[in-house]
Amino acid sequence: MIHAHMTAWFLALVLFFVALGLHKSGKEKGAKIVQMVLRLFYVLILLTGFWLLFSINIDLMYVLKAAVGLWVIAMLEMILIRTKKNEKASVLWIQFIVAVLLVLYLGFSLPL
Fold this sequence. Notes:
This is UPF0344 protein SAMD00020551_3935. One of its GO terms (cellular component) is plasma membrane. It is a multi-pass membrane protein. Its main location: membrane. By secondary structure, the chain is mostly helical. The protein has one domain (2-109). It is 85% helix and 0% strand. The longest helix is centred in the middle third of the chain and has 27 residues, at 28-54. The chain is globular.
């Protein structure tokens, strides 16, 4: 299940940057399709993440990692929405970078 979770995260990040590029280039129909597929990957990430969380002895650090993972997903979606509306998203980008670094640190440092 760990491999499915990591694959879903990797593909979600790739789809995020593809959707962002499509939004910026003005291809709204393609961006909307990619964003819907990205939302499907959010669901896959959540399902595999909760499966992993409940398959181990739940510790506070694992719950923290899950919360930071939700923060990352929220930032991905909010950045795309602000980009679509042509609004400034620099604060969201900073939050996204901090959250990704934190979730990667927690994800690779916690034993599983």
